[in-house]
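Hi V.,

Quick status before I head out on leave. The structure for the redesign project is tokenized and pasted below; the design run finished overnight.
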């Protein structure tokens, strides 16, 4: 499963096309990229690495070599593509081709269904499933600097060289536990669709959990959306265009004129100068919008409710660990809190006789999470299920008790 010999450097269009034909004949490819994401809105691809069980190759776009034929094989449904933490890598393929990518497996997702934490590095995955240790000398290397050293190229090649072997071991265990379909479904969800911009996630990161008033929340959302537009126009990462600390300063001071925007601390001067009017207009526009309502904010002010949710979250984590599932792959704490709060709010309305209805399920019926722990979780919070665990001294882990 591991290709022998040195990696190839594909330095011509003909060589790239030939390797793409080889990939299609093999039907399986490991794919990775080295990119710089701190200097532009979209990551800049500096190196492309591909491997089958027979060959390993590197393509250098910065030297004028077009990787498109390899991208087309990665997108080919007839070829299974292996990646590890591949969201950005597959995003580059999708953007270059302008279409969807199919038949993907992310081994970072797969091993999180077999007892490793989410997320786990490629090095951790290889050490756990193949007893192999990779060097870490170039983890934070400057991949856009040329020429690349022999050590850098060897490091990059190893990121794909061993992935088919690791996937073979991981797939075997997934099949034995009936979880292969789970890994494929989650890989498809996380990799095959469009990269979603999640303003709520950006807002949580910027506010660092601060409990904002509804009007402030509305303004922060509008500023997060404007920041994305400015970052795209200036080709900068979003948090470089307007740092989180500057966003929160804008929320606190609410400047409605361009000259007031330019007085905001931590706001880059070029952005303040060029976009001061748009930022001020955004603040004025947000004032006219209805305040963002968090229907559970008042509920979550109750310490008893928070303690109840904490205990349920702990129970879910324990159940996941007993089932060799990474809890935070299943759902985030904020998602779980929203679900619990919705259930508690419904229970209270029912007791007051205000309404009746079906409690929300934790996950969609067709989501692998429902089969994994969703049915149990629903029964557990309704008082019809139990959490029974034991310590397995042989494996050194907690296990469920039937």
């Amino acid at each position: 499963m591991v290709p022998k010999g040195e990696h190839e450097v594909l330095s011509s269009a003909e060589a790239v096309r030939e390797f793409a034909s080889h990939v299609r004949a093999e039907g399986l490819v490991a794919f990775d990229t080295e990119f710089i994401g701190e200097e532009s809105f979209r990551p800049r691809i500096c190196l492309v690495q591909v491997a089958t069980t027979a060959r390993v190759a590197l393509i250098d776009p910065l030297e004028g070599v077009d990787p498109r034929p390899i991208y087309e094989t990665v997108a080919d449904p007839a070829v299974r593509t292996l990646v590890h933490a591949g969201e950005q890598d597959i995003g580059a393929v999708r953007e270059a081709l302008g279409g969807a990518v199919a038949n993907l497996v992310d081994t970072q997702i797969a091993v999180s269904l077999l007892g490793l934490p989410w997320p786990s590095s490629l090095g951790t995955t290889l050490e756990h499933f193949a007893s192999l240790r990779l060097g870490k000398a170039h983890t934070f290397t400057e991949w856009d600097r040329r020429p690349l050293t022999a050590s850098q190229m060897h490091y990059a090649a190893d990121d794909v060289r061993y992935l088919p072997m690791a996937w073979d071991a991981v797939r075997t265990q997934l099949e034995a536990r009936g979880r292969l379909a789970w890994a494929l479904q989650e890989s498809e969800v996380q990799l095959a669709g469009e990269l979603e911009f999640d303003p709520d996630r950006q807002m949580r990161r910027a506010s660092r959990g601060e409990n904002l008033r509804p009007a402030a929340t509305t303004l922060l959302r509008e500023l997060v959306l404007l920041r994305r537009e400015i970052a795209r126009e200036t080709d900068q990462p979003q948090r470089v265009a307007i740092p989180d600390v500057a966003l929160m300063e804008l929320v606190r001071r609410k400047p409605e004129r361009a000259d007031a925007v330019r007085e905001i601390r931590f706001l880059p001067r070029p952005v303040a100068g060029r976009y001061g009017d748009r930022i001020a207009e955004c603040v004025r526009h947000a004032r006219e919008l209805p305040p963002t309502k968090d229907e559970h904010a008042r509920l979550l002010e109750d310490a008893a409710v928070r303690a109840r949710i904490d205990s349920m979250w702990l129970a879910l984590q324990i159940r996941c660990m007993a089932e060799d599932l990474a809890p935070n792959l299943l759902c985030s704490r904020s998602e779980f809190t929203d679900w619990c709060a919705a259930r508690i709010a419904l229970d209270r309305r029912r007791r007051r006789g205000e309404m009746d209805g079906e409690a929300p399920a934790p996950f969609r019926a067709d989501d692998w999470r429902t089969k994994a722990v969703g049915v149990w979780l629903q029964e557990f919070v309704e008082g019809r299920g139990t959490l029974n665990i034991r310590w397995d001294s042989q494996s050194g882990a907690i296990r469920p008790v039937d």
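Above is the designed sequence. The chain has a mean pLDDT of 92.

G. will cover questions while I'm gone.

Best,
W.
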